[in-house]
Each structure stands twice: as C-alpha cells, then as structure tokens.
Amino acid sequence: MRLILLGAPGSGKGTQGPLLAARLGATHISSGELLRDHLADATEIGKLVSDYVQSGDLVPDEIVLELLREPIARAVTSGGYVLDGFPRTLRQAEMAFQQALPLGATADAVVYMAVPDDVVRERLQGRSSAGRLDDADTAVIERRLRIFHSETEPLLEYYRNRGLLVTIDATSSPQDVLDATLAALSAR
Ligand code: AP5
Ligand code: MG
Could you give the CA distance from residue 157 to residue 61 in angstroms, rounded to a whole number? Predict the structure, then answer.
C-alpha cells in the first residue's frame, strides 16, 4: 500500500506512521526525520537546510524531492510507503506525482489527520522538553502552523478532487486513531 499522511505539525504523523507501516507491510518515510538526521550528522544537506528547519520554514522543494527520491523508490519495490510530512506544498505534490506516474508508484490514499490548532499547541509545547529545536519556541510553533494552513492545507482539495482523501479525527488516543485509520482504509 502507498499512503500519504497529511496533517498539521503535532497531528500525530510521526506517531501513526510507523504503526501504520507495520500493519500495512510498508515502509515509514518521514521527510522531517531524514532532514533532522542530516542536521545531526552535519552533512552538506544538513548545513543547507539548518536555518529553514530551525525557524519552522519549509525547505526548498528541490532539496526535499531529491532527499526522498531513493527511499521512495526502494519502498515501492517492497510493500509500499507511508509518507509522513511529504508532500507539503502543491508544487511538491505535483512534482512527486509526475515522478511516480511512470513507475506506477502514485499514492493509493491520503489520510488527513484532523486536529484543531489548540491541540497542536498543547502537544508541541508538551514535547518541547524532548529536544526538537522547532518545538522549543512558541513563535516557531506558530510559524509552522501558519505555513501548514497556507501551504499544505490546499492539498486537501487537491487530493479530494482525485478521490484519494480520507479524513480521520486525530484528537482521540493513538490506538483509536490507528484503528479508525485502518478501518477507513479497508472500507474504501
Ligand atoms: P516534520 O518533522 O514533518 O514536522 P511537523 O510537520 O512540524 O510535525 P511533527 O513531527 O512536529 O508532528 P507529527 O505530526 O509527526 O506528530 P507526532 O506524532 O510527533 O517537519 C519538520 C521541519 O522539516 C519542517 O518545519 C520543515 O522545515 C522541514 N520539512 C519536513 N518536510 C518537509 C517538506 N516536505 N517540505 C519542506 N520542508 C519540510 O506527535 C506530536 C506530539 O503529540 C508527540 O508528543 C506525540 O506523543 C503526541 N501525540 C501524537 N498523537 C497523539 C494522540 N493521538 N493523542 C495525544 N497525543 C498525541
Ligand atoms: Mg513528525
């Protein structure tokens, strides 16, 4: 199965991603985790993206596309993918679609994990002691939320029009969110 998880920061993409991947026999691929690995290893890419990630801005589309190309291609040959944090702009979605189309690797479904902004604020502030630099500052959390609404939310319409969108109430417990997502996917 090839799945895209769409949701605000703190909606639970990173919580559900590995659980869904395990249940679906797919590979969890998080753009944010890959970027943070580069930051931690101080690679060339890490240096290039550091300011964006730490200030809560989106990294340029080309960098993210290049970073994900191989992991996605590998996942497609072994059970599919659960994409967490990508695509995040209409341009990324269109570029990813064009790359995936000839490979037969376009997404089967897009799960929108719906949570109100106040739940996001509570969750991310609660996690800020866990060491994510972009959770440490409320201004950065607000910026990520704003960018989600302006850049990523338009993808809901994009995928709804393609008949791919499944909306899940992501405010309940992680187990309930997982069960609801699996039920919604198998009902499609
Ligand atoms: P990314 O790593 O994708 O971060 P994000 O979207 O801001 O989301 P988070 O990882 O903070 O939240 P999540 O939805 O994974 O929730 P989680 O499960 O952790 O991106 C980081 C940065 O990288 C971006 O700002 C950007 O700079 C760059 N980037 C990444 N992808 C990019 C792209 N495609 N293009 C350009 N730039 C890109 O949960 C959050 C908290 O809530 C946790 O503490 C968790 O325990 C808790 N929680 C989860 N589920 C529940 C629940 N059901 N009930 C109660 N608590 C819960
Ligand atoms: Mg995450």
Answer: 20
Which three-class secondary structure state does DSSP give residue 169? strand
Each residue's pLDDT tens digit, 168-182: 999 999 999 999 999
- Contact between 82 and 20 under an 8 Å Cβ cutoff? The reply is yes
- Dist. CA 102 → ligand 1 center (Å): 30
Residues with CB under 5 A from ligand 2 (ion): 13-14
Domain count, the chain: 1
| pTM score | 0.97
CATH number at 174 reads 3.40.50.300
Ligand nearest 59 Cα, by number? 1
Task: Measure 187 CA to ligand 1 centroid, in angstroms.
Answer: 27
Cβ–Cβ under 8 Å, residues 6 and 110: yes
